[in-house]
Specification:
Helices cover 27% and strands 31% of the residues. It has 278 residues and is of the alpha+beta class. Strands 7, 8, 9, 10, 11, 12, 13, 14, 15 and 16 form a ten-stranded mixed β-sheet that branches. A six-stranded antiparallel β-sheet has the order 2-1-6-5-3-4.
């Protein structure tokens, strides 16, 4: 089932002249539902509204945080997926026009799927990555939002699968490492935990925000946002990837370098404790 403009239906209402399909003229958010609640709902909502503003979509008056929570959880209840699931809300400009749309009005579509694990845990014990250098991410505002133009992530995922890697790391115009194919990247160098600033072109991740806040509470850590060079990866003690659905995934191998997982485990424990208290 799907939720199309507030109506839960078993029919797919997407048409062949949908602008999201034809031009990538859409933005989206993927949220995690746990025990009938949307985790980090406020952060997701404000990022979605910011994304709509960036791409000059008209924001309807009824697009409040409470409205979207209701729409997502209504679909979760209809599918009996309130316990543990993921939902994607896609907002696309209404049909009409070519590159220039006829107007800026929008529709939305919500899909939902079950998740096996309710709390966050490491998905894999062994996790190897490589740089993806076929295409780069440009340092501009569009790179920081979730739009349906994800061809770098798609082609990079195919490259990783064909070459036996679990993930790939993306680079920007300056050849700095900015993120993984499916989440933000963090690097531990001594007692300094580093993640690229948004100005590098990385996604303004919701889980990135949570991890930064949690890491700053660990007294032994210095937490900074600064560029990461590919050469830094070989000198790091730890690397890990973050996203809202999987939480934290440590990278255990990059080329000939093996990594520890101590800090990622500590932050994961703090993350799950925070969720239980919320």
């Amino acid at each position: 089932m799907i939720n199309f403009n507030g109506n839960v239906t078993s029919e797919d209402n997407l048409l062949t002249n949908n602008r999201g399909l034809l031009y990538g003229d859409s933005v989206f958010e993927t949220v995690k539902i746990l025990d009938g609640k949307i985790l980090f709902a406020e952060d997701h909502y404000f990022r979605l509204m910011a994304s709509m503003r960036i791409v000059r979509m008209e924001i309807p008056m009824n697009f409040t945080m409470e409205y979207f929570e209701e729409q997502i959880l209504t679909l979760a209840k209809a599918e009996n997926l309130e316990k543990s699931s993921r939902a994607r809300i896609t907002i696309f400009r209404n049909q009409g026009g070519f590159y220039l749309p006829k107007d800026n009005t929008v529709s939305f579509l919500i899909h939902i799927a079950a998740l096996e694990n309710s709390v966050y845990q490491f998905e894999k014990e062994s996790y190897e990555v490589e740089l993806y250098k076929d295409f780069i991410v440009t340092k501009h505002l569009l790179s920081t939002i979730k739009s349906s133009n994800r061809m770098i992530n798609v082609t990079g995922s195919i490259f990783a699968d064909e070459n036996g890697y679990d993930n790939c790391l993306l680079i920007n115009d300056d050849k700095n490492v900015i993120e993984a194919l499916n989440g933000n990247i963090f690097m531990l160098m001594g007692n300094k935990l580093i993640t690229p600033p948004i100005s590098e072109g990385c996604l303004n991740g919701v889980m990135r925000k949570q991890v930064l806040a949690l890491a700053k509470k660990i007294e032994s850590l210095e937490v900074v946002e600064e560029p990461i060079s590919p050469f830094d990866l070989q000198k790091a003690n730890e690397l890990f990837v973050t996203n809202v659905i999987k939480g934290i995934q440590p990278i255990t191998k990059y080329r000939k370098k093996d990594y520890e997982t101590k800090i990622s485990k500590e932050i994961l424990l703090r993350l799950n404790a925070q969720i239980r208290l919320s």
